[in-house]
Amino acid sequence: MALMEDRDPEQDEQLKSEIWKSLYEFFLDEHERHLESVAEFGVSPGDLKALMRLDPGRREPMRALADMWRCDASTVTWIVDRLEKQGLVERQAHETDRRVKVVVLSQRGRQLRTQVFDRFYQPPAALSDLSHADLKTLHRLSIQLRPR
User: Domain named HTH marR-type: which ranges (predicted)?
Assistant: First the structure.
Protein backbone atom coordinates (compact mmCIF):
# COMPACT_ATOMS: atom_id res chain seq x y z
CA MET A 1 0.00 0.00 0.00
CA ALA A 2 1.47 3.36 -1.03
CA LEU A 3 2.02 5.86 1.74
CA MET A 4 -0.13 8.95 1.53
CA GLU A 5 2.09 11.98 1.26
CA ASP A 6 1.56 14.49 4.02
CA ARG A 7 -0.41 17.35 2.54
CA ASP A 8 -0.50 20.80 3.98
CA PRO A 9 -3.68 22.52 2.73
CA GLU A 10 -2.10 25.94 3.23
CA GLN A 11 0.93 24.99 1.13
CA ASP A 12 -1.38 23.49 -1.51
CA GLU A 13 -3.32 26.75 -1.73
CA GLN A 14 -0.09 28.75 -2.05
CA LEU A 15 1.18 26.37 -4.73
CA LYS A 16 -2.09 26.52 -6.67
CA SER A 17 -2.00 30.32 -6.48
CA GLU A 18 1.56 30.45 -7.82
CA ILE A 19 0.75 27.98 -10.62
CA TRP A 20 -2.33 29.92 -11.66
CA LYS A 21 -0.48 33.26 -11.60
CA SER A 22 2.27 31.84 -13.82
CA LEU A 23 -0.20 30.26 -16.24
CA TYR A 24 -2.36 33.38 -16.39
CA GLU A 25 0.62 35.64 -17.08
CA PHE A 26 1.84 33.20 -19.73
CA PHE A 27 -1.57 33.20 -21.43
CA LEU A 28 -1.84 36.99 -21.29
CA ASP A 29 1.59 37.33 -22.88
CA GLU A 30 0.67 34.83 -25.58
CA HIS A 31 -2.64 36.60 -26.16
CA GLU A 32 -0.81 39.89 -26.69
CA ARG A 33 1.60 38.15 -29.08
CA HIS A 34 -1.36 36.74 -31.00
CA LEU A 35 -3.01 40.14 -31.28
CA GLU A 36 0.22 41.64 -32.59
CA SER A 37 0.70 38.79 -35.05
CA VAL A 38 -2.75 39.19 -36.58
CA ALA A 39 -2.69 43.00 -36.77
CA GLU A 40 -1.73 42.58 -40.42
CA PHE A 41 -5.23 41.24 -41.10
CA GLY A 42 -6.66 44.69 -40.42
CA VAL A 43 -9.21 43.80 -37.76
CA SER A 44 -9.43 45.21 -34.26
CA PRO A 45 -9.05 42.91 -31.24
CA GLY A 46 -12.81 43.21 -30.59
CA ASP A 47 -13.66 42.37 -34.18
CA LEU A 48 -11.24 39.47 -34.07
CA LYS A 49 -12.88 38.09 -30.93
CA ALA A 50 -16.28 38.31 -32.58
CA LEU A 51 -15.01 36.70 -35.77
CA MET A 52 -13.52 33.80 -33.82
CA ARG A 53 -16.83 33.16 -32.05
CA LEU A 54 -18.78 32.84 -35.31
CA ASP A 55 -19.03 29.26 -36.54
CA PRO A 56 -18.68 28.77 -40.29
CA GLY A 57 -21.95 27.65 -41.83
CA ARG A 58 -24.07 28.73 -38.85
CA ARG A 59 -26.57 31.52 -39.12
CA GLU A 60 -26.70 33.34 -35.79
CA PRO A 61 -29.51 35.76 -34.91
CA MET A 62 -28.27 39.12 -33.70
CA ARG A 63 -29.89 38.51 -30.29
CA ALA A 64 -28.00 35.21 -29.92
CA LEU A 65 -24.75 37.02 -30.73
CA ALA A 66 -25.45 39.54 -27.98
CA ASP A 67 -25.87 36.67 -25.53
CA MET A 68 -22.78 34.83 -26.82
CA TRP A 69 -20.61 37.94 -26.78
CA ARG A 70 -22.10 39.15 -23.48
CA CYS A 71 -22.96 42.59 -24.73
CA ASP A 72 -26.04 44.57 -25.65
CA ALA A 73 -27.75 44.55 -29.03
CA SER A 74 -26.39 47.97 -30.04
CA THR A 75 -22.83 46.73 -29.55
CA VAL A 76 -23.55 43.70 -31.74
CA THR A 77 -24.93 45.99 -34.43
CA TRP A 78 -21.81 48.15 -34.24
CA ILE A 79 -19.45 45.14 -34.47
CA VAL A 80 -21.43 43.44 -37.26
CA ASP A 81 -21.51 46.75 -39.18
CA ARG A 82 -17.70 46.89 -39.09
CA LEU A 83 -17.28 43.23 -40.02
CA GLU A 84 -19.79 43.61 -42.85
CA LYS A 85 -17.97 46.68 -44.24
CA GLN A 86 -14.80 44.56 -44.39
CA GLY A 87 -16.64 41.80 -46.22
CA LEU A 88 -16.18 39.31 -43.37
CA VAL A 89 -19.86 38.68 -42.52
CA GLU A 90 -23.23 39.04 -44.19
CA ARG A 91 -26.60 39.88 -42.70
CA GLN A 92 -29.42 37.73 -43.98
CA ALA A 93 -33.11 37.34 -43.24
CA HIS A 94 -34.12 34.56 -40.86
CA GLU A 95 -35.67 31.55 -42.64
CA THR A 96 -39.03 31.81 -40.88
CA ASP A 97 -39.14 35.37 -39.52
CA ARG A 98 -37.98 38.07 -41.91
CA ARG A 99 -37.96 40.62 -39.08
CA VAL A 100 -35.02 38.77 -37.52
CA LYS A 101 -31.58 39.31 -39.00
CA VAL A 102 -29.01 36.53 -38.86
CA VAL A 103 -25.27 36.89 -39.34
CA VAL A 104 -23.17 34.44 -41.31
CA LEU A 105 -19.47 34.42 -42.11
CA SER A 106 -18.71 35.32 -45.71
CA GLN A 107 -16.21 33.34 -47.76
CA ARG A 108 -13.59 35.97 -46.91
CA GLY A 109 -14.55 35.76 -43.22
CA ARG A 110 -14.17 31.98 -43.20
CA GLN A 111 -10.76 32.25 -44.87
CA LEU A 112 -9.57 34.89 -42.41
CA ARG A 113 -10.89 32.88 -39.46
CA THR A 114 -8.97 29.82 -40.67
CA GLN A 115 -5.77 31.85 -41.10
CA VAL A 116 -6.09 33.32 -37.63
CA PHE A 117 -6.79 29.96 -35.98
CA ASP A 118 -3.84 28.42 -37.82
CA ARG A 119 -1.62 31.14 -36.41
CA PHE A 120 -3.13 30.94 -32.91
CA TYR A 121 -2.62 27.18 -32.74
CA GLN A 122 1.10 27.41 -33.47
CA PRO A 123 2.83 26.42 -30.23
CA PRO A 124 4.54 29.23 -28.33
CA ALA A 125 8.32 29.35 -28.54
CA ALA A 126 8.55 28.79 -24.77
CA LEU A 127 7.44 25.18 -25.27
CA SER A 128 10.60 24.54 -27.29
CA ASP A 129 12.62 25.16 -24.14
CA LEU A 130 11.01 22.20 -22.38
CA SER A 131 12.43 18.69 -22.40
CA HIS A 132 10.49 15.83 -23.96
CA ALA A 133 9.68 14.51 -20.48
CA ASP A 134 8.41 17.94 -19.39
CA LEU A 135 6.30 18.21 -22.55
CA LYS A 136 4.74 14.80 -21.86
CA THR A 137 4.01 15.83 -18.25
CA LEU A 138 2.52 19.15 -19.36
CA HIS A 139 0.41 17.35 -21.96
CA ARG A 140 -0.95 14.92 -19.39
CA LEU A 141 -1.71 17.72 -16.92
CA SER A 142 -3.29 19.98 -19.54
CA ILE A 143 -5.67 17.18 -20.50
CA GLN A 144 -6.63 16.79 -16.84
CA LEU A 145 -7.40 20.52 -16.64
CA ARG A 146 -9.82 20.51 -19.57
CA PRO A 147 -13.45 21.19 -18.70
CA ARG A 148 -15.49 18.07 -18.32
Answer: 16-147
